[in-house]
Specification:
about 250 residues; alpha/beta; 7-stranded mixed beta sheet; 8 helices; 7 strands
């Protein structure tokens, strides 16, 4: 199971995109044009816009969209003058990036790669890494934080959207506590069977020690943080935070 779970996730996300997944819908031409006029926002988590002060000067900045395909954020960075590279393991998400780039006439480098492996970039390549909620599809997140640190320039910024694990304890209608944490289908047969049956992909809950502690262990300095909800559903109605976003810099 362990060898193949990232492949399962790649194919699952391709399928979700074909079915109209929220995070696989590229931005419109109108949204792109507004961004060129500095009217824009983007999210790392379901609902809250990332504070603009979290970003570096984006004109000519080298930006890595880490597991950030789908034609949602990279086009906005490009409209603002950044030089963008996107790494994703879903071919459909990368196709969306190429389609928007062609439509709006800008260049983007698309890289199909498994982020559990060494990133295919030189040390100190990027000014900013934009990493929306996606390491929930990876069992061990520490190597990702170490790779982010390696490929960022000194003073570079990592912004990341993270799941706090609460979603994984409930059934799909968010009314019944069904699973124990940690949620790890590679180590729990029932969780694996339910994940495949329900077309969830193979997802993992992660602790604050793994997420924030992992960033600190990799060498980052945490500079800001905020919480967010699912945007819909019972937990959202009760304003229960299920996600958070972090901003960290490389020393």
């Amino acid at each position: 199971m362990e060898k193949e779970y990232t492949e399962i996730n790649s194919k699952t996300i391709d399928k979700w995109v074909e079915e109209g997944w929220q995070w696989g819908q590229p931005i419109s031409h109108e949204v792109f044009e507004k961004a060129k006029n500095n009217e824009w926002e983007m999210v790392l988590t379901p609902t809250k816009a990332v504070p603009k002060e979290w970003f570096c000067d984006l004109k000519n900045a080298k930006v890595l969209g880490l597991a950030s395909g789908g034609g949602q954020q990279m086009p906005i960075f490009s409209a603002l003058g950044a030089k963008c590279t996107v790494l994703d393991y879903s071919e459909k998400q990368l196709e969306s990036e190429r389609e928007v780039a062609k439509r709006e006439n800008y260049e983007i480098k698309t890289v199909k790669a498994d982020m559990t492996k060494r990133f295919p970039f030189e040390d100190e390549t990027f000014d900013l890494i934009f990493h929306p909620v996606s390491n929930c599809y990876v069992e061990d997140v520490l190597p990702i934080w170490k790779e982010c640190y390696r490929v960022l320039k000194k003073g570079g910024i990592l912004v990341a959207g993270l799941d706090n694990g609460i979603n994984y304890i409930f059934d799909e209608d968010e009314t019944t506590v069904k699973y124990k944490l940690p949620f790890n289908p590679l180590k729990n047969e029932q969780q694996y069977e339910d994940s495949i049956k329900n077309d969830w992909g193979i997802q993992f809950s992660h602790t604050i020690e793994e997420q924030i502690g992992g960033q600190l262990q990799a060498g980052f300095i945490l500079t800001d943080i905020y919480q967010d909800t699912n945007g819909s559903g019972k937990l959202h109605v009760h304003n229960i935070p299920t996600f958070y976003a972090t901003r960290a810099i490389k020393k």
